[in-house]
UniProtKB/TrEMBL annotation:
Location in or out of the cell: Secreted
Top enzyme class: hydrolase
Lineage: Eukaryota, Viridiplantae, Streptophyta, Embryophyta, Tracheophyta
GO cellular component, one term: extracellular region
Enzyme Commission numbers on file: 3.2.1.78
Protein name: mannan endo-1,4-beta-mannosidase
GO terms of molecular function: mannan endo-1,4-beta-mannosidase activity
Organism listed in the record: Anisodus acutangulus
Domain spans labelled Glycoside hydrolase family: 47-384
Length: 439
C-alpha cells in the first residue's frame, strides 16, 4: 500500500519517468564501466625499484627477481574475448611468487597495431596496454616494457624502415637503417615520447610516473650485422637511452641485449657460444656500461645457439655463460644483470626432465648470486601461456600449472629468494604460508 501511494505520488508530480531514466542511465554506466571500479579500485602500494650498485632495491631491501615473459598481454587485452587471459596469467604469476613480467609495449603496423603509422596510434590498443598495466598493479606484479623489436614479429625494425621507404625519406632499404636513418630515429623518438607520457585511463597515472613499470627496455635482442664493429648500434643506444632519460628519470632502463661479446672483447672467443656471436654488431659490456643504462640484460638459449652439442654440454655452457656475465656485472659494469629470457625448446628430442634440469640450473645460479649479494639479479622464463593459446606458443612456451614438476621448481625459487632477502608486501598473501614449511 505504501508502495502504491508512492508510485501515484511520483507519477502525479511528473517525476516517474525522469527517475526511471536516471536509474537506467546508472545501470548502463555500471554495465559498461563497472568493471573499472571493481577491477582497479583495490590499491596496491608499489614503490619504484631503484638501483644501488649491483643490486636492485625495493623499500630499502635488496630485490632479486623470479620473473617470466608473456609478450602477448597487450595484444590479447585489445580483444574483449581474450582479455580475461591477462588477469588469469597475472594472478597465476602472483600465486607462484613471481614479481616481474616482461612484455611487449609495441605492435607496429599490422593486426591490433598500437602504432598504425609513424605518430598515429590506435586508442583501443593503447587502452589495452592501460589495462595490462592496471591489472599488473592490482596483482602486485611489476612490468618490464619493451619498446621495439629487432625481429620482424609485431612490426619491429622492418616496419619502421618500410614506413620511411613509403614516405620517400629512407636512406636505405636495409633493416639496419633503423639504427642510423635520421627520419627513422625521429619516428622512434616520437613513439617513445608518446608511450612514456601516456596517461592510463584506468589509473589516471602517466606511464613515466607509475611504479608498476619496473623498467623500460629499448629493443628486444638488438643486432646490427651490417656493422660488426658495433659502432652503429652503440651510437643508437647512446642517443636513445639519453632521450628516454630526458623524459623519464624515475624508471630503470636496459638495452635488451642477448649478451654476446663483440669483436674487441677479450671474452669474444672464450665465452661466446660460437664465432658468429662476435659479428652481430653488439657487445655486452660496451653496450651496457653507459651511464644512461641502469642494468644489463642477457638471454640464455643453448639449444638454439648450438647444433652439435649434447644436453650435458649445453648445461655446462649455460652455467659458464651466466657466471661470465655475473662476473662482468660485479667487476666491469658495477650494475645488476638480469637474464631476461631463458628456455629450452620442446623439439623432436625434447624430454620434460631435461627442461626441469635446465630450469633448475638457471634458478640455482640466481639463488647463489642472491645469497652472495652479487650482480646476478634475476631470471625470466620464456615464455608462459594460459590454456587454449597453442597458436601463440613457440617451441619454448608452457602453461606452468600443467607441468607440476616445473611449477614446483618455480615456486620453490620464489620461496628461496624470499628466505634470503625477505618477502615483498605484495607476496605476503600468496607465499607466507606456502613458504613457511621450507624456511
Amino acid at each position: 500500500m505504501v508502495k502504491s501511494s508512492m508510485n501515484r505520488m511520483l507519477v502525479g508530480n511528473g517525476l516517474f519517468y525522469p527517475i526511471i531514466g536516471f536509474a537506467s542511465f546508472i545501470a548502463f554506466l555500471y554495465l559498461s564501466f563497472g568493471n573499472l571500479w571493481v577491477n582497479y579500485s583495490k590499491e596496491i602500494n608499489l614503490s619504484f625499484v631503484e638501483r644501488n650498485g649491483t643490486q636492485f632495491i625495493v623499500e630499502g631491501k635488496a630485490f632479486y627477481i623470479n620473473g617470466w615473459n608473456s609478450y602477448w598481454l597487450m595484444d590479447h587485452a585489445a580483444d574483449y574475448t581474450t582479455r580475461p587471459r591477462i588477469r588469469t596469467m597475472l594472478q597465476a604469476g602472483a600465486k607462484m611468487g613471481l614479481t616481474v613480467c616482461r612484455t611487449w609495449a609495441f605492435n607496429d603496423g599490422g593486426y591490433n597495431a598500437l602504432q598504425i603509422s609513424p605518430g598515429k596510434f590506435d586508442e583501443k590498443v593503447f587502452r589495452a596496454l592501460d589495462h595490462v598495466i592496471a591489472e599488473a598493479r592490482r596483482n602486485g606484479i611489476r612490468l618490464i616494457l619493451s619498446l621495439v623489436n629487432n625481429l620482424q614479429a609485431y612490426g619491429g625494425k622492418t616496419q619502421y624502415v618500410k614506413w620511411a621507404w613509403e614516405e620517400g625519406v629512407a636512406l636505405s632499404s636495409s633493416n639496419d637503417s633503423f639504427f642510423y636513418d635520421p627520419s627513422i630515429r625521429r619516428y622512434f623518438k616520437s613513439y617513445v615520447k608518446t608511450v612514456l607520457t601516456r596517461r592510463n585511463i584506468y589509473t589516471g597515472i602517466e606511464y613515466r610516473d607509475d611504479p608498476t613499470i619496473f623498467a623500460w627496455e629499448l629493443i628486444n635482442e638488438p643486432r646490427c650485422m651490417t656493422d660488426p664493429s658495433g659502432d652503429t648500434l652503440q651510437d643508437w643506444i647512446e642517443e636513445m637511452s639519453t632521450f628516454v632519460k630526458s623524459i623519464d628519470r624515475k624508471h630503470l632502463l636496459t638495452v635488451g641485449l642477448e649478451g654476446f661479446y663483440g669483436p674487441k672483447s677479450p671474452k669474444r672467443t672464450a665465452a661466446n657460444p660460437e664465432f658468429w656471436a662476435a659479428d652481430l654488431g653488439s657487445d655486452f659490456v660496451r653496450n651496457s656500461i653507459l651511464s644512461t643504462v641502469d642494468f644489463a640484460s642477457v638471454h640464455v638459449y643453448p639449444d638454439h645457439w648450438f647444433k652439435h652439442k649434447n644436453f650435458e654440454e649445453m648445461l655446462k655452457f649455460a652455467a659458464k655463460w651466466m657466471l661470465s656475465h655475473i662476473e662482468d656485472g660485479d667487476r666491469e659494469l658495477k650494475k645488476p644483470v638480469l637474464f631476461t629470457e631463458f628456455g629450452l625448446s620442446n623439439n623432436d628430442d625434447f624430454e620434460p626432465a631435461q627442461r626441469d634440469r635446465f630450469l633448475k640450473l638457471v634458478l640455482e645460479v640466481i639463488y647463489m648470486s642472491a645469497k652472495r649479494n652479487r650482480s646476478g639479479a634475476g631470471s625470466f622464463f620464456w615464455q608462459f601461456l594460459v590454456e587454449k593459446m597453442e597458436r601463440f606458443s613457440d617451441e619454448y612456451g608452457i602453461v606452468p600449472w600443467e607441468s607440476p614438476s616445473t611449477y614446483r621448481l618455480i615456486t620453490e625459487q620464489s620461496c628461496k629468494l624470499a628466505k634470503v632477502h625477505g618477502l615483498l608486501p605484495t607476496q605476503i598473501d600468496h607465499l607466507k604460508n606456502f613458504c613457511a614449511p621450507r624456511n
